[in-house]
Each structure stands twice: as structure tokens, then as C-alpha cells.
Amino acid sequence: MSKSSDSxxxxxxxxxKAALKGGADAADAVAVDARSKGVSWREGQMEDVExxxxxxxxxxxxxxxxxxxxxxxNRSADNLKEVVERTLxxxxxxxxxxxxxxxxxxxxxxxxxxELDLYDDTEVSAEQLAEIxxxxxxxxxxxxxxxxSPGAGASASSWAIDLVTSHGFAGHYKxxxxxxxxxxxxxxxxxxxxxxxxxSTRHFSDLESAAAIGTKAGExxxxxxxxxxxxxxxxPLIFSPRVANSLLGHFxxxxxxxxxxxxxxxxxxxxxxxxxxxxxxxxxxxxxxRGLSSKLFDGEGVRVQKxxxxxxxxxxxxxxxxxxxxxxxxxxxxxxxRGTSSAPGIGTTNLYMEAGTLSPxxxxxxxxxxxxxxxxxxxGVNGVTGDYSRGASGFMIKNGEITESVxxxxxxxxxxxxxxxxVPASDLEFKYGxxxxxxxxxxxMVAGT
Length: 449
Fold this sequence. Notes:
- Helix content is 23%, strand content 36%.
- Strands 3-2-1-4-5-6 form a 6-stranded antiparallel β-sheet. A 5-stranded mixed beta barrel has the order 8-15-16-17-20.
- It has a domain at 227-449.
- 43% of the residues are buried.
- It has 9 helices and 20 strands.
- The protein is α+β, with helices and mostly antiparallel strands.
- The protein has helices at residues 3-21, 77-93, 126-141, 210-223, 241-254, 257-262, 322-328, 360-364, 415-421, and strands spanning 26-42, 45-63, 66-72, 146-165, 170-186, 193-201, 228-229, 233-239, 282-284, 307-311, 314-315, 336-337, 345-346, 351-353, 369-377, 387-398, 401-414, 423-424, 434-435, 439-447.
- The protein starts with a helix and ends with a strand.
């Protein structure tokens, strides 16, 4: 552990002890130190350079069943003393929350932390970032049929998280992130079409080349030119990986302990039941090496572990922090998320759907008339009922082959039915925080011409 992390942990420990001395029954403190820089590039020149630095501290205190949180970016002794006093005063004034409290002590991470290789200390200058963005834009504009690029960007960031609780947990870890992205426009006037590509990694050396993402963005935009209109009706749909992962987001929201406890989830009564088809397994793995959403412990200091949320189609667990675990009379699952200004929330980490056995081509081989979805528009999803309706664009599937582009149509169904009909392909890749392979869903309604 670095001297800087030792220093921050000591500061947080002093803050927690001061809260206890002032009358708190329990307390925890979190520090988030973040640094970032980024550039944007447009039409052959630098458009903008941005940089930010933040050192935020959050204190949470509990007096009986009353709790309050205060955050600050001022680490001076006088200010931190005032923060303790203000947080205690707020806790005494708020209504009781019967479910508040620290995580169960026997669930805390007490052993050595995993080595996940989340931090790369490579110093990337603004000039290097500008060169990456320039190369991406030039590659995009070089694609035949591309008329312009709305711009490209590149960024580098790093952060450190420290957490101390009054019942004995102290932990620190840090991470880094590097990314580049580019947009492309093909065609002219009312016939213009846009698309994009990007790359994001923990380590600078893992970034996909700027030329590769630039070329791909341009080719994707050109493929979308001269779209036709989809005919209305019930059709089999193929979701490309970059939109299939949105289905994981809807699933994650539905199994969040907060939604289940409030009764606002369309899966609230389905624990232990089949909610996907037999061949579907969904995994949350916080311990993935160089994972974009990996963590060493959760927002309450609880030990994290790889877990099958869905196994063979069966819903195995909710995602719970300590408050929702108490409310539902269950055990915490290590899914607490944390900022500096609010009580712990709930979130997944490296969420993914395991690959199936069929290639994307095999998955669509028997589709006589369907649609390959590459973009979803709008947020017409009801988390209480599962009703699903979104604008979309993509490509027609005719006799098992992807053909002309198609746009300006709506797809609709219910997530409960969609999950049960979902079939994953074999092309899983890890590019996002949540990842899914290509998936097929039969029986959805398409509203077009």
C-alpha cells in the first residue's frame, strides 16, 4: 500500500473515531480521489482539452436508527471537525430508518485483496491523446462514402477509493481507464446516416488502434445509407452485441434489492424460478482481471465474489446491500455501490451473459423475414410491468442473410416474454461494463410502415 493510501486511510480512521467520540453508534468514511484529462478533435484540429481533479470525502454516521451523510473536498482539520459536528447534528434531526446500519461484520473482507491489475501508471500527455483522436478521425474520413466526422476524442483517467468503517474494515484500491472514440457521417442532406466506434481499457497498451476504430465507424455509417422501411408485424429479431447488453441493464434493475423491496420490479416474485430459457446463464464477476467494472470490495467493505445471477435460466439471487438485505431478511451479496454524498446504493460489476453454442450466422440461418438490430432509441421500458417499446434501426434479414439497412421503426414486447425467448450466440466479447453476445428473440412486434 502506498504512503498516500496510508495517509488517506489514517485520515478516514480519525474521522470515524471523531464521530464515535461525538456520540455516533456507528460510522464509516469514504474517499474518492480522481484525475482525468481528455481531448476532442474535429475537422483536422484540436477542438478542446479538458482536465479535472477531485478529492472528495464522505462521512456517514448512525445514531440508533437515524443516519446522515455529509461530503466535502476540503481536508483541512478545521473543516473536517465541522463536518463531523454537522453530520452528527443532521443524524439527530432526521426520521428513523429501521434498515440503516453498517454491513454485518462477518461479511466484511478480512483476507488479502485480489491482484486484479486495475491500475496502469502510464502517463499519457494531452499531445498523445490528440494524436490518437486525430488518427481516428483521419481513418474515418478516409472511408469511401463518409462525408464528414462529427469528431473524435481520447481520454485518460485514474482514481483511488479508500473506505474505513467503525467495526474494523479498512481498504484501498485504485484503477485507471483509457479510451478513444469517433463518429462518422455518410451521405448528404436528408440522406445522411451516422454511426460510431470506441475502445475503452484499464491499460493503455490494451487500447484498440485509433485507425481500426476510425475505419470501423466509417464503414458502419456507410452501411446504413439508403435505409428502407420495415413492414409491421411479428418478426424474429437479432440483437447485435452493442444493443443486446441493454437487456442486461433491464435485468439488473429488476433484480436490484431496492426495486424488489419496493415491489416495483417485474421479477419481484420470481426468485428461484425460470426467468430465461434453459441455455442462459448470467454472471456478475467483480474479480475479473483488468475488468472495466472490477472492484476489490463493495461499497460497504463486504467481500465480493463471482456469482451466477441466472444459471440455466433460473434466477438465483437478488443484488443486495445491507439495508435491502435487512428489509428482505436475506444476506448481503456484495453489491453495494458507494459515492461520497449518499448512503450505499446497489450496482453490478462485470455483468455478462455467457456465450451460446451457435454462431451469429447459425442463429439467423432459418429466419426468412426478420431484422438485425444495431441501434435502439428512447427508453420506453416499464420496470414495474416489464412492458418494452423502443425505436430501432438496423438491417433486414432475408432467408438467413443480412441485407439492406432499415430505420424508423419500433419494436415492442414484454421483458418477461423476451427473456424466456432469448437465445445467445457464441460471439461474447468484453468491451463494455455489461456484455452480451448476439442474441435472438422471436415473437416481438415490429411497427413500421
